[in-house]
Design goal:
Helices cover 29% and strands 34% of the residues. The protein is α+β, with helices and mostly antiparallel strands. It has a three-stranded mixed β-sheet, with helices on one face. Helix 2 runs antiparallel to helix 3. The radius of gyration is 22 Å and the shape is elongated.
Length: 185
């Protein structure tokens, strides 16, 4: 009986290793040319529109998403721009030239914008913690913790169930939402 269970467990383990291998391998193939999207050439016209509206236009034209903390940037400044057949990265640099911003092109066609100013000068509230299972006391790996007021701000717990998030201190209290997806036992 125990041999049968051991063999069943081993086949499940083999399947898990195989699935993980396939996931990593296929992701590696997809990621090989994924960052090329920043070299995509687009044309853009905007007359007396806010920087935020222009970023939205760029997103639609290049099939990308911009991800940034709206309270960290004031993109209400109006600009006029007329660009023909230029690379996405050059257009983004031109549109954001008046801002102190770090631009990160991620593999999933997402452009992350972060303020260049040190977070300590903005006023940051640091939140650290460990997420554990109430039933057995084990650390919950991969649990997501997001800010309820801004779903784009969040982190994922590490292998020890620990997380660290820095929130711009514009409020006194924050509400963090925890979610975990686990296989059914």
């Amino acid at each position: 009986m125990w041999k049968k269970r051991l063999l069943q467990g081993m086949s499940g383990y083999r399947f898990l290793v195989f699935a993980l291998f396939m996931l990593v391998f296929s992701g590696g193939l997809r990621a090989a040319g994924e960052d090329e999207y920043q070299k995509k050439k687009i044309s853009l016209q905007a007359a007396n529109e806010t920087v935020e509206e222009v970023l939205n236009k760029i997103g639609k034209a290049a099939d990308i998403r911009f991800f940034y903390n709206h309270s960290a940037f004031d993109f209400s400044k109006k600009i006029t721009i007329d660009i023909k057949d230029q690379e996405l990265r050059n257009i983004v640099l031109q549109v954001l030239s008046d801002y102190s911003v770090d631009i990160e092109y991620q593999l999933n066609h997402t452009v992350v914008l972060r303020p260049k100013t040190p977070m300590s000068s903005i006023g940051v509230q640091k939140v650290n913690g460990t997420v554990i299972d109430a039933k057995n006391g084990e650390a919950l790996v991969g649990a997501s913790i997001v800010l309820k007021e801004q779903r784009g701000v969040g982190v994922v717990t590490d292998v020890d169930g620990k997380f660290h998030v820095e929130l711009i201190a514009v409020r006194r209290h924050w509400l963090l939402v925890l979610s975990v997806i686990r296989p059914k036992r």
